[in-house]
Amino acid sequence: MPDIYKQAAESLFSFQNRVGGLKALCLAQNSSPSATYALSTAVMDNYENLKSIKGITCDNSMNYFHQIVLLHEFQTNGFPNKRLRLSKETRNTISFLKANVDLEPLKAMKPAAVFKPVANRYFRIFQKTSLTEFAAALKELNITFTQTQFKNVVVLSELPPSAKLTPFGEFQSIGSCLPVLCFQSIVNKGTLLDLCAAPGSKSLQASESFTVTANELDKRRFNILKKRCEPQNITCINADAFDTIDRIRSNQFDLILLDPTCSSSGTYNQDKALAQKLNVGKEKDLEKLVTFQKTILLKALTKGAEKGVKYVSYSTCSINDEENEQVVEFVLEQNKKWKLVNVLDEWEVRGLRHKECVRCEEPGNGFFVAVFQRK
Ligand SMILES: C[S@@+](CC[C@H](N)C(=O)[O-])C[C@H]1O[C@@H](n2cnc3c(N)ncnc32)[C@H](O)[C@@H]1O
């Protein structure tokens, strides 16, 4: 058994430092990535309670997140068994907590009062999954689910060990599901190029309707993408999206999905205090990020128009106008061959100045999607 406590602490620490999305960071861990993700998200749900415990090192350091993870474990199962192969850091953190923190209030809290999820826990059910089988599996785990407005996206009452649900679908937030749901509402088949694809959630979702090619620049993230996507017959390319766009052949792709690196400010809005403290999305490199987003989208649209692409989606898990509507306005001004297409009428939250676009403003699941159609 690997030391998932240290791995979860590392993932949460990197997530806080905006190295990447929590899911991708956990999946990048060497061993038991799914268990690490389940633990990390459970800690996030419990974070408001854990951070109020007196005596911990409140400095947002790796050590702080290690303490938070172990407090969560202490509260749910007791401190990890000494016989497990725990790292020196985990053993030291347990000793620190035992010596410096009053653990009694944690023991006294009832789990029901403690586990108040901050963000909804979404699950995307595969199209091939029978709802009856899925419901039966959840019943066995004592978990309930509620349907969203999309028939294959549900909210789970709590997070089960992810391996138990692997046959039925994927953990994927409703915001992250939106780009492919938008495409599926316009066309029902075709070829799709996902330009910034790792860790592969949208490529996997898209592969249920389209023939998908998934492109990723970062070698480490590409390896995760490949491991997840190749078994689903998705072609994976490890290259810079700018080069891949240059290599598109005429009529090779009907659709381009562009979900580039962003500030991830939408994933932080579940903890307003933390977001403000970090000044998420308003940091000095926002400008650099926006330049990248504008350049790559413009290139995808320009080449796409030449090579017969019919639709391009642009999405971010940011809630900033600068990374969303302003990027859309910039490219529409620069390239007159494309127009915005109205998507998902039934989705109520729309773009700030463009009712064609969709936004998700739910805490922790902030998202934006625009779909362009070739005129
Ligand atoms: C927001 S994440 C994509 C998430 C993914 N669409 C999913 O749903 O799982 C952005 C990805 O773009 C990749 N990326 C950044 N610049 C790139 C480039 N120039 N070419 C290809 N991929 C790039 C990053 O490494 C990162 O994996």
TrEMBL record:
Residues given in the record as S-adenosyl-L-methionine binding sites: 196-202, 216, 243, 259
Residues annotated as catalytic: 317
Pfam families: Methyltr_RsmB-F
CDD domains hit by this protein: AdoMet_MTases
SAM-dependent MTase RsmB/NOP-type domain: residues covered: 98-375
Keywords: Methyltransferase, RNA-binding, S-adenosyl-L-methionine, Transferase
PROSITE patterns in the record: SAM_MT_RSMB_NOP
Signal peptide: none
Family the UniProt entry places it in: Belongs to the class I-like SAM-binding methyltransferase superfamily. RsmB/NOP family.
PANTHER family: 28S RRNA (CYTOSINE-C(5))-METHYLTRANSFERASE, NOP2 YEAST -RELATED NOL1/NOP2/FMU SUN DOMAIN-CONTAINING
Name of this chain's protein: tRNA/rRNA_cytosine-C5-methylase
Organism listed in the record: Hexamita inflata
